[in-house]
From TrEMBL:
Residues 31-257 form the Pyruvate flavodoxin/ferredoxin oxidoreductase pyrimidine binding domain. It comes from the Bacteria. One of its GO terms (molecular function) is oxidoreductase activity. One of its GO terms (biological process) is response to oxidative stress. It comes from Cohnella thailandensis. CDD domains: TPP_PYR_PFOR_IOR-alpha_like. This is Pyruvate synthase. Keywords: 4Fe-4S, Electron transport, Iron, Iron-sulfur, Metal-binding, Oxidoreductase, Pyruvate, Transport. Gene3D superfamilies: 3.40.50.920, 3.40.50.970.
Length: 777
């Protein structure tokens, strides 16, 4: 983080402050590092990913002591955080969108057992379809989790609310985890001038040097406790009542804390941010970043004689119903803008709650107009704010047209910013579907050997396979030098006939399916990477059952489909459980993992396949840390332990070997069950290597025995390429020097990490050779 070291004391504040120019994500991380939390469990997802990245970079440079725990997925990160909170320390997290929904099961568990923490929700559209930009569809899922929710309209508020939130969470009258919500990209990535505490000591003086004492935790050996017991009625309802009362108390506690904070800093966040509402006749109600934009519209309307005003809460759990009803007293009409729909509810969640507030506090005169806007990150401009005001003005009868007898009133509920469908712009098929005869060439044959029980594969020279059509069309948006598609297409050369592919979220998915275009020539399915294996399992079983019932006879299928799930190494982290489940059920499908050693589509964070010592954006190199601190996962061996018929590793640097394995994979997937394959893929952008060196780097990875080529066929291991026997065994250090992400491992201060990495490569290679020599290992 680039920090401007100029310091100032706000004329309205009591503490020394520093001016910085940073984004919302940077300010969340900055506040967290000043607090110096004990634990952060995290998993990367855009646009919140940067929070962990910034904290890791600061950790590498020794700026804080937070233990950063990279989880296997958001559900795991929520579990890490919950466990840490039961142990009495301070806990922090950040997430977005489907990542938050994946955590959702854990959210009421933590609030229901009353363990405080702070989590930043960097708001983003919830799939599907997939969209990574900002709206409030994830935020609205948080409303019923029992967490107080504070809002941030700009990076300054992100910083301030992260400090206020911890004090609120730990207050004896509250003791609940708190959510800090900001808008993805609009706030998370937008740089602004921000005032911060100049000294960590002042931050800790405000929130407390350490968590308040006197509350039970699991590390007190003299006071053992039971966390989360089973409850029947009436105990369960009593627990919920106590939690509910704590939530309502949070409103007064927040109000007290924000006043204390205002006295220290000169910055105030009242429960409602009211702008020119004293005599307003029409108003607009909005959350977060768009609420600032609409203030300019208020000023413009005031200049024209319209008594306009705006309302925006700084806290929505507990919902400030009474204050809102009072603020709208005398207002003839208000347009409530929701950045997410509550489908079927005749308005978004804020609309429903504003209406309830008016009803509860007997304001029966203010008309409420509901508009859904800004979904999927659609920009909100002053012109959009003006349109929302125009709806309220018309509903209030303040303009001539609406006041005229018989004039139509605005719809009580509608979307703003959507466009009518144009049949002329409907997606059209650009590519002619591939013919079966083109795909079933007969060039590759696989025949079982009745004597050995293994498969004999005949593969022609590679040039003969160029006649087979590519299954992914040119025109995708991958980075220069990306090895994904050369690796996938080489594998696909070994597949004969029709194929249905499921792609997890990841680089290969994102760059091939930008609506309304698709680079996929065959049927393609997408699901989020924690559940792809289960999804394709459902497709496979439906195919075979409908085939058994004769429901597909009219389609004239020449032979069965080959079902392939394409996943990155991230999908085999967060999706490991469903993948193992599919393997144990032994569905007739192939899981093909392209391993580029990181979560590349979200910005090159570490995955469990990132090797020891390698630099990523969450395993930085600095004076206190030199890359990833634990070894990479051997996914192929994990999948082999499920006893599926066939497991293999492959590389485009050994093309015939990979094509032969693809052919075997297809035979086993059609005849016996699950297949898993792993291919190493180059990523020049994030490996910090030359585009032209990709194949050479992959070849060296194989020749060092870091990425050995082998297969496990019906439980028997066979090394298919041995660089020692070929006289091609190469130096690990020479390979590491080819990539910018690993050059630091050659420095004297990192020799211990290098030796540990080399030793682990040799250990795994020795184990593999032993398995190759014995069919019982």
């Amino acid at each position: 983080m680039a920090i401007d070291l100029s310091k100032t004391t706000s004329p309205k504040g009591k503490i020394e402050q520093r001016i910085v120019y940073e984004s919302g994500n940077e300010m969340a991380a900055y506040a967290a590092h000043q607090i110096n939390y004990h634990i952060m469990g995290y998993f990367p997802i855009s646009p919140s990913t940067e929070v962990a990245q910034f904290l890791d970079l600061m950790k590498a440079n020794g700026q804080h002591d937070i233990v950063l725990i990279p989880a296997d997925g958001e559900h795991g990160s929520a579990g890490v955080c919950y466990g840490a909170s039961t142990a009495g320390g301070r806990v922090f997290n950040a997430t977005s969108a489907n990542g938050y929904l994946y955590m959702l099961e854990q959210m009421p568990v933590q609030s229901g057992t009353r363990f405080p923490m702070v989590m930043n929700l960097v708001c983003r559209s919830v799939s599907g379809p997939l969209d990574i930009h900002g709206d409030h569809s994830d935020l609205y899922f948080a409303l019923n989790t029992g967490w107080p929710i504070v809002l941030c309209r700009d990076p300054q508020a992100v910083y301030d609310m992260n400090i206020i939130a911890l004090k609120l969470a730990e207050d004896p009258e509250v003791r609940l985890p708190v959510l800090v919500a900001s808008d993805g990209y609009f706030t998370s990535h937008q740089k602004r001038r921000v005032m911060t505490f100049a000294n960590r000591e002042d931050v800790l003086a405000f929130v407390g040097e350490k968590p308040p004492e006197g509350f039970a935790h699991v590390l007190d050996r003299d006071n053992p406790i039971t966390v989360g017991p089973y409850m029947n009625e009436p105990d369960y309802i009593n627990n919920c009542y106590q939690q509910s009362m704590a939530m309502y108390r949070a409103e007064a506690v927040y109000d007290r804390i924000r006043q204390e904070y205002a006295e220290l800093t000169g910055r105030d966040y009242p429960i409602l941010d009211l702008y020119r509402m004293d005599d307003a006749e029409v108003a607009v109600f909005l959350l977060n970043s768009s609420a600032e934009i609409v203030k300019d519209v208020v000023d413009q309307l005031r200049e024209k004689g319209v008594k306009a005003g705006s309302v925006s809460p700084n806290i929505i759990r507990p919902f400030p119903a009474k204050q809102i009803a009072e603020a709208l007293h005398g207002v003839k009409a208000v347009t409530v803008g929701d950045r997410a729909d509550s489908y079927g509810g005749h308005g978004g969640n804020m609309t429903i709650e504003v209406k309830a507030a008016l009803q509860t506090y007997e304001n029966h005169t203010t008309k409420v107009i509901s508009r859904i806007y800004g979904l999927g990150g659609k920009d909100f401009y002053a012109e959009d704010g003006l349109k929302l005001f125009e709806e309220a003005i018309a509903a209030a009868g303040l303009d001539g047209a609406a006041a005229a007898e018989g004039a139509a009133s605005p719809k009580p509920f509608d979307y703003h910013g959507h466009t009518a469908g144009d049949p002329a712009k409907a997606p059209k098929r650009v590519l002619t579907p591939m013919k079966f005869e083109e795909l079933k060439t007969g060039l590759i044959t696989v025949t079982p050997d009745e004597t050995t029980g293994k498969l004999n594969v005949r593969v022609p020279p590679l040039r003969s396979l160029t006649k087979k059509p590519k299954r992914i069309a040119p025109g995708h948006g991958a980075c220069p030098g990306c090895g994904i598609f050369s690796g996938l297409e080489l594998f696909f050369k070994g597949i004969e006939g029709d194929m249905i592919a499921l792609f997890h979220t990841g680089c290969a998915m994102v760059v091939t399916t930008g609506y309304p275009y698709s680079a996929h020539k065959a049927t393609y399915i997408h699901n989020l990477f924690q559940n792809g294996a289960a999804t394709l399992s459902g497709v496979v079983e439906m195919f075979y059952e409908r085939k058994r019932r004769g429901e597909l006879d009219h389609l004239g299928l020449k032979e069965d489909f080959t079902f392939v799930m394409i996943t990155g190494d991230g999908g085999m982290d967060i999706g490991m459980g469903p993948a193992i489940g599919a393997a144990l059920r032994n569905h007739k499908m192939i899981i093909l993992e392209y391993d580029n050693e990181g979560y590349m589509n979200t910005g090159a964070q570490l995955s469990y396949s990132t090797p020891l010592g390698h630099r990523t954006s969450t395993s930085n190199v600095g004076k206190q840390q030199a890359g990833k601190v634990f070894h990479h996962k051997d996914t192929a061996q994990i999948m082999a332990a499920t006893n599926i018929p066939y497991v293999f590793t492959g590389s485009e640097a050994n093309p015939i070997d990979l094509v032969r394995k693809a052919a075997k994979a297809q035979w086993y997937a059609r005849n016996e069950g699950m297949v898993y394959g792993k291919i190493l893929i180059t990523c020049p952008l994030n490996w910090l290597s030359e585009d032209r060196d990709g194949s050479t780097i992959i070849e060296q990875a194989v020749n060092t025995c870091f990425f050995p080529l082998y297969e496990v066929e019906r439980g028997v291991t066979n090394i298919t390429y041995n660089p020692e026997e070929k006289g091609k065994k190469s130096s690990v250090l020479d390979w590491l020097r080819m990539m910018g992400k690993t050059k630091h491992m050659s420095k004297p201060e990192n020799q211990e990490t290098l030796r540990e990495f080399e030793n682990e490569i040799e250990r795994r290679w020795a184990v593999l050779k032993a398995k190759h020599e014995s069919p019982y290992l």
